[in-house]
Amino acid sequence: MQNDLKFWNTINLVGEIGPVKFKKLIDFFPNMETAWRASAFELKQIGFSEKDIANFLTKRKEINPDLEFEKLLKEKIALITIKDKNYPKLLAKIYNPPALLYIKGKITDDNKPKIAVVGTRKISPYGKQITQELTYDLAKTGITIISGLALGVDAQAHESALAAGQKTYAILGSAVDEKNIYPRNNLFLAHKILESGGAIISEYPIGTPGLPQNFPQRNRIISGLAYGVLVTECPENSGAMITTQFALEQNREVFACPGSIYFENSKGTNYLIQQGAKLVMQAQDIIEELNFNLILPEKQKPKAENEEERKILEILSKEPISLDLIVQKTKLPPSKLLSSLTKMELSSKVKNIGGMNYIKSS
Questions:
Q1: CA separation for the pair 45, 53 (Å, rounded)
Q2: Residues near 61 by Cβ (< 8 Å), separated by ≥ 6?
Q3: What is the rounded distance in angstroms from the CA atom of residue 182 to the CA atom of residue 188?
Q4: For 163, how many CA atoms within 13 A lie in the half-sphere containing its CB?
Q5: pTM: predicted TM-score of the whole model, two decimal places
Q6: What are the DSSP calls for 55-94, one per residue?
Q7: From start to end of the chain, where are the E strands?
Q8: Centroid of chain to Cα 19
Q9: Axis-axis angle for helices 307-315, 323-330 (nearest 10)
């Protein structure tokens, strides 16, 4: 088995052999070692163009299957092919599923409910707030959160799932080897995902950088692994909208959070709702729509430990309030107020959602 895996990886390194051409090889040859050693005549028989054949034969002289497979072993990257019984069942049913997946970490809960959470890279305080709350609540029920490790909504979704004590899966538009995990700004987050028992996943072989053309393809895997896709915040032209298109083609449910009609980052989600996406205001909306037999844990109301905390909690809600307004309403000295807010943040009673704007945690 490992010997054949070596040749799946080798063929993937040839380049320009996507799911369609891979399927031709799978259907024609008994195994990938035979496919790797195929003649020009055989490759032409299965529909490879002259250009494809020339590229394949050239790369065959340049690539050493054993050395390339050793790289995977050294990086502790597992390889799952579409012929493997452990290949994710939901993903296998989409149009043009990836022929193979490179996995760092573990995917062991194929039957567990999964939701993809996506959105803009330029996240606003509102987007951060709703992504944190909805993702955290979904993860608390045991739902596995899937996203793309990108800056903004993706990163926030992964972080919130981890904060809920759950593992999460990140689907990359680059290879999963240490040198090429993209974006580099979220390398530490990728490590946290792995340490928590989650996984980072890609269809791209070792050495593949985060090229722009990889991400639309990557998005079909994000939606394909999940039962539904939640878009918390995005403009009309964004990668998240591409993911929702894949989701619809894959017969997945699409969920979206509403926002101001004047706010650029809400134009995409508002449009999705207009087109029939399920409007989401709380995690329960998603759980009910997908008929997940899950119960949201009851939230504990934060308790004040002293008079300063009582005054602060009395005026805070889910609507962000600026530090200046908190000073004005509580009439507490700024230094004492900041000290109290810091302690309350550490005990998860309040959240600073950016720009010194605060909300009540529960």
A1: 11
A2: none
A3: 11
A4: 15
A5: 0.87
A6: HHHHHHHH--HHHHHHHHHHTT-EEEETTSTTS-HHHHTS
A7: 78-81, 100-105, 114-118, 144-147, 168-171, 199-202, 228-231, 253-256, 278-279, 321-322, 350-352, 357-360
A8: 21
A9: 120
The residues, any chain, with a CB within 8 Å of residue 339's CB and separated by 6 or more, are: none
| Three-state secondary structure call for residue 278 | strand
* Closest of 211, 207, 208, 274 to residue 241, by C-alpha: 274
Residue 80 to residue 101: CA distance in whole angstroms:
5
Residue 31, burial from CB neighbour count under 10 angstroms (0-12, 13-18, 19+): middle
- Say how many C-beta atoms besides its own lie within 10 A of residue 232's C-beta: 32
Question: Cis before residue 183, ω within 30 degrees of 0?
Answer: yes
199 SS3 class: strand
Measured distance CA(70)–CA(150) in Å, rounded: 29
- pLDDT tens per residue, the chain (362 residues)? 567 899 999 999 998 888 999 999 999 999 999 999 999 999 999 999 999 999 999 999 999 999 999 999 999 999 999 999 999 999 999 999 999 999 999 887 678 899 999 999 999 989 999 999 999 999 999 999 999 999 999 999 999 999 999 999 999 999 999 999 999 999 999 999 999 999 999 999 999 999 999 999 999 999 999 999 999 999 998 889 999 999 999 999 999 999 999 999 999 999 999 999 999 999 999 999 998 877 666 666 778 888 888 888 888 888 888 888 888 888 888 888 888 888 887 777 888 877 788 888 76
The amino acid present at 297, given as its one-letter code, is P
Tell me how far CA of residue 118 lies from CA of 145, 154, 187, 266, 357, in angstroms: 10, 6, 18, 13, 24
The DSSP call for residue 275 is T
Q: How far apart are CA 67 and CA 81, in angstroms?
A: 20
Task: Give DSSP secondary structure letters for 128-175.
Answer: HHHHHHHHHHHHHTTPEEEE---TTHHHHHHHHHHHTT--EEEE-SS-
CA distance 285 to 270: 17
Selection from 186, 144, 188, 140 nearest residue 165 by Cα: 140
